[in-house]
Amino acid sequence: MIMETRPYVSWEKMNAFLIDAFAGYGVPREDAKICADVLLESDRRGIESHGCNRFKPIYIDRIVKGTLLPKTEIEILKETPTTVVMDAHDGMGMVASYHMMEKLIEKAKKYGMAGGAIKNSTHYGIAGYWATMASKEGMIGLTGTNARPSIAPTFGVENMMGTNPLTFAFPTDEEFPFCIDCATSIVQRGKIEYYARQGKDTPAGMVVSQDGKTMTDSEAILKALVDGTAALAPLGGVGDELCGYKGYGYAAVVEILSAALTGGNFMKALTGVAEDGSPQMYHLGHFFFVVDPDAFMGQDVFRKTAGEICRALRASKKAPGQDRIYTAGEKEYDAWLDRKDKGVPVGEAVQKEILEVRDKLNLPYTFEEFE
Question: What is the dihedral of CA 292, 44, 164, 196, to 10 degrees?
Fold first, then answer.
């Protein structure tokens, strides 16, 4: 394990600060509590790409820019005993998703299954948060979202679909659920930014240039992604030798469900940039499904079977030099065990953003951890 050198801020202090900061930018306080918890859940799981790192650039800056509305006006477009379609009207995607999952869990408890979709939404945080809302209730959770274009289809070179996560969470008889929460691209922009900071090349096969060849120069890739002359490859990589068409197919599944269930926007309409180059609303779509195992052979049977499968996988023969096999959700649980008494590790860039927001809003916080 890499030794942590960044200062830690207690969960309590960071939670209070995030709530006050969101509220300071016009987010209703009860909604701000949801937003803060979603971001901190990312950090609890060690998924820092979607935690406090994104607090200012993805949420606060977009509120200021006008591409994200702080007040979320949720409209129910259609509802049946087992389904819901919502319009988030460009408010906080995390808030709309929270209310959606509350509804679907209630419906699934009554009818065995429920599904919903949201249109005209914004970034909803880690997809795993919504899936595990279901698993905490002993249910199966499934969700996905489209996003601004960054993935090229197999044999293509143009950004067409977002990184489009397809996420599942299952309750088990262990201390943590099985939760697979990952993009359908082979790599995300944040990982390439990490390679660039480390002076490392991006592994071949992850990014395709306009001439159809793989790119490896991390700094050049970041510039090319901005000007649209490079695209991320789907899971599997460039071409079909490593079955990149599978990731492409799953990315398309997420794109279709995110848009078609609501009649919402998709692909090039999700850039956040108008034809004249000015900022515009993102109009993202999300979908959610909840299944109650009690409508099948029972929650206890499901938990036990899921746990046995996970334990068998972890106990299987390991490759030479490897001392551990993981199942989905286990590394995140380990991250929580390591951090629960320490707090949130905060790097220099995020420290500056926290202080900037604090001073802008005149919030009464002292961060002796890094000031």
Answer: -160
Spatial contact of 202 and 187, defined as CB atoms under 8 Å apart? yes
SS3 letters across the chain? CCCCCCCEECHHHHHHHHHHHHHHCCCCHHHHHHHHHHHHHHHHCCCHHHCHHHHHHHHHHHHHHCCCCCCCCCEEEEECCCEEEEECCCCCHHHHHHHHHHHHHHHHHHHCEEEEEEEEECCCCCHHHHHHHHHCCCCEEEEEECCCCCECCCCCCCCCECCCCEEEEECCCCCCCEEECCCCECCCHHHHHHHHHCCCCCCCCCEEECCCCECCCHHHHHHHHHHCCEEECECCCCCCCCCHHHHHHHHHHHHHHHHHCCCCCCHHHHCCECCCCCECCCCEEEEEEEECHHHCCCHHHHHHHHHHHHHHHHCCCCCCCCCCCCCCCHHHHHHHHHHCCCCEECCHHHHHHHHHHHHHHCCCCCCCCCC
pLDDT digits 0-9 by tens, 255-270? 999 999 999 999 999 9
CA distance 121 to 167: 18
Q: What is the pLDDT of residues 54-104, one digit of tens each?
A: 999 999 999 999 999 999 999 999 999 999 999 999 999 999 999 999 999
Q: How far is CA 339 from CA 16, 43, 116, in A?
A: 18, 9, 34
Q: How confident is the model over 211-253, as pLDDT tens digits?
A: 998 999 999 998 898 788 999 999 998 888 889 999 999 999 9
What pLDDT score does 2 carry?
67
With beta carbons less than 8 A apart as the criterion, state whether 21 and 36 touch.
no
pLDDT over 80 at 179, yes or no: yes
Looking at residue 196, its pLDDT comes to: 84
Q: How far apart are CA 293 and CA 307, in angstroms?
A: 14
178-180 and 166-170 strand pairing: antiparallel
pLDDT range class, residue 1, cuts 50, 70, 90: low
Specify the pLDDT at position 227.
83
For residue 133, give both structure tokens.
């809302």
